[in-house]
Each structure stands twice: as C-alpha cells, then as structure tokens.
Amino acid sequence: MPYDVDQLLEEWRINGFVVFEDLIPTDTIDRIREAWAPLREAGVKEQGTKPVRGTGRYNIRVPFRRPFVDPDIFEHPSLVQFLEGALGEDYVWNHFDSNIPIDTCKDYQRWHRDTQIPFPGLMTPAYTVGVKIPLVDTDEQNGSIEVLPGTQYVSDVDLQDDLDRVFGPGLDRRGRYYSVRLNLRKGSLWIHDARIFHRGTPNFTGIPRDELCMAISRPWLFNTWQYEYTEPHLPRKLWDCLSDHARQVLRRQRVKD
To answer: Are 146 and 239 in contact (CB under 8 A)?
Structure first.
C-alpha cells in the first residue's frame, strides 16, 4: 500500500511515534515467528523466572541472519525514506533485540524511555529510534505497548528519575496525561523516538506477545552493545547479497566467514 511519508514524518515529529500499517506480508511475519520461537524459548530458559525487565517480560537478542534480517523489510522504500528524514541519510542499524511479555507477565512495566538524554535540559532532534515489528496482533489482552505522545521533548532529567511517581504505576494513574495503546495488526510496523515515555502492559493470554526491535541511530551515537559483542556474527553469504545501501545501514556489524 502507498504511504504518505511526509505526513508520517510530521506526525512522528509531533507525537514521537508513528505506525506503518500492513507494511510486511503476513506470511513473512509467520515465517519469522516460526524461526524465532525456539530462540525465544531458549532465551526465556536462560534468563529464568526473574528477568531484568520484570516477571514474565523478556528482552532477547535477535541474531543478524535470515529470516530476521530481511531487506524487504528494512530496505522498504517508504521505511528508508522515513528513516532518512528522521535521522539523515547516513543512519546506521546498531543492534537487534526483542520485547516479549509471556503468560506469566501480569504487571505493568514501569514508565521509561529507551535512551539517556545526552544533553540534559536541551531539546534536540531525534538521534535514535526503535523500529518495532510485532509478530502477532497486539491488543489489550496480550500486552500491547502504551505510549505518551510528545514526551520525546521532555529534557528535564528530574522528571524521568521516577516516572511512575509522575504518571502513576499500573492502573493507578495520576494527573491529566493522555496515553495511547498501540493495538496493531500483524504485519504493521511502528517506530518511536527512543526518548518517548512508554511502558509494556500485562499479557493475560497464554501466548507470547513477540515483538522484534531494530535499534537505528545517527552514526555518532555510541552503542555499548556493539563494543560488547566482539565476535563476527553477520553471515558472509548474507552480506554478499545485500545492496550497497543495505551494507551502509549494516556497516557497524561484524561479518563472519
């Protein structure tokens, strides 16, 4: 389907997030989820019953290989146009992880943002975004993400020290803040400025709410993950078949033979 990228960029600049409805064919999503399921199960087993993001809420790294690294997704012309407008033509894909509440996740996540403010007190253009791919329909039952539009421009660090105090934890909301639940169809993709305040919600179903996240940024942003992950990991066969632009986007990844 056609996308009005200029309009989406305007919407994103104001709200801090935007949705590309039905960007990915559902059979592609199903193929990715089938390959992802055993990796998710292994990650859940390794992290145990008390992962760092809370009971039943897992963050598991996604390998840079097929079918997860799919040029039909990250090289989609409308997505490329959007990312160039948001971050500049030299943007880079830093790391690849996931956000998964499983059936034991019955609590709300704490309000948070996915990055630190490098210049406290100063409003800056966006420097890093999360490009997020739900592998299932997301709704009020299985833990869709909740966001607070416009909060990417809050640069007062004292307000982010304890956001649950500001907005209220769980269902115990405080003040007049108007959040949005991102209930999305499988095949849609959403992008958010990493500074926007958001949180995960409970999963009341027996099915994991799988979501993959491509972390993409301006090239000057220091990325700890890439310095910790020192082993070559992107398959040479995949690298060799990528376009010149795709190689530019993935230029920070280490290619293995």
So the answer is: no
Distance CA 255, CA 127 (A): 25
Please list the alpha-helical segments (H only) found in the chain.
Answer: 5-15, 26-47, 71-74, 77-87, 163-167, 224-228, 236-240, 244-249
Mean pLDDT, residues 117-126 taken together? 87
Burial class (CB in 10 A: 0-12, 13-18, 19+), 85: middle
Is 228 part of a structural domain of the chain? Answer: no
Within-domain flag for 29: yes
CB 129 within 8 A of CB 83: yes
CA contacts within 13 A on the Cβ side of 117:
22
Look at residues 134, 111, 109, 112 and name the one whose alpha carbon lies nearest to residue 55. Answer: 109
Domain tally for the chain? 1
Cα gap 54→17, rounded to integer Å: 24
The predicted-structure confidence for 211-241, as pLDDT tens digits, reads as follows 999 999 999 987 777 777 668 899 999 999 9
Question: The domain containing residue 18 runs over which residues?
Answer: 5-218
3-state helix/strand/coil string of 114-178: CCCCCCCCCCCCCCEEEEEEECCCCCCCCCCCEECCCHHHCCCHHHHCCHHHHHCCCCCCCCCCC
Q: Is residue 99 part of a domain?
A: yes
